[in-house]
Amino acid sequence: MTEDEFDAFYAAAFPRLTGQLSAFTGDREEAQDVVQEAFVRAWDRRGDFLADEAPEAWIRTVAMRLAVSRWRRARRWLELVRRTPPPGAVPGPDPDHTALVAALRQLPKAQRMVIVLHHLCDVSVEQIASDTGAPVGTVKARLYRGRAALAKHLAVDEADGAADTGELGKAGVPVRKESGRV
User: Fold this and answer.
1) Do the beta carbons of residue 9 and residue 39 sit within 8 Å?
2) Alpha carbons 51 and 46: distance in angstroms, whole number
3) pLDDT of residue 159
4) Mean pLDDT of residues grouped by 10 in the chain (182 residues)?
5) Which of 97, 145, 155 is nearest to 118 (CA)?
6) Cα R_g (the chain), whole angstroms
7) For residues 48 and 52, what is the distance between their CA atoms, to the nearest angstrom?
8) Which one of 76, 89, 149, 160 has the fewest CB atoms closer than 10 angstroms to its CB?
9) Contact 21/64 with Cβ under 8 angstroms?
10) Helix axis angle, 3-25 relative to 28-44, nearest 10°?
11) Closest CA to 22 of 63, 54, 72, 82
């Protein structure tokens, strides 16, 4: 079948097949999708397509099989969704974590990066220097300045929580009575 013959066949058969598959699927858009997919598959076989002598029946059969496959996939998906329990309530972030993240956001990027890598990811100063391409002394300076700035930001954020104790630790950071930690 030549390209022009296939185009003519498509123009004549597509509306008829879409109508038939609409009755089968109950959804015109779904019918158009499966008929179109069947024509794409027929295009790949167009060299021996006329040998079947019933090209429209072949496309109808393929389209019906595609529709049934889609139904099966949709049904399996629905069964999976029904079996999966809804996610439980997720607790909100810890107030200390929220305060730390807010304070870290106020630091310059270079200081924030070395603070996070060194204190939260347990990366050595030498490894941070190697990874960032900064000298070890620069990394140490960023850590020192970052800690000092972080302590100030946390002191302002946590001043309400330690106001009743009146105790301040290093760099003016309020001390909690229960743990004695900053």
Assistant:
1) no
2) 10
3) 56
4) 84 92 89 93 76 80 93 91 82 86 90 90 92 92 92 72 47 46 44
5) 145
6) 34
7) 7
8) 89
9) yes
10) 150
11) 63
What's the whole-model pTM score? 0.45
Reduced 3-state DSSP string for the chain: CCHHHHHHHHHHHHHHHHHHHHHHHCCHHHHHHHHHHHHHHHHHCHHHCHHHCCHHHHHHHHHHHHHHHHHHHHHHHHHHHHHCCCCCCCCCCCHHHHHHHHHHHCCCHHHHHHHHHHHHCCCCHHHHHHHHCCCHHHHHHHHHHHHHHHHHHHHHHHHHHHCCCCCECHHHCECCCCCCCC
Residues 39, 63 contacting (CB under 8 angstroms):
no
Nearest to 118 by CA among 134, 98, 99: 134
pLDDT value at position 164? 43
What's the rounded Cα separation, in Å, for the pair 112 and 101? 10
Q: Distance between CA 10 and CA 23 in Å, rounded?
A: 20
> What are the angstrom distances between the C-alpha of 14 and each of 7, 28, 39, 72, 78?
10, 12, 9, 24, 31
Burial 129-148 (b: 16+ CB within 10 A, else e): beeeebeeeebbebbebbbe
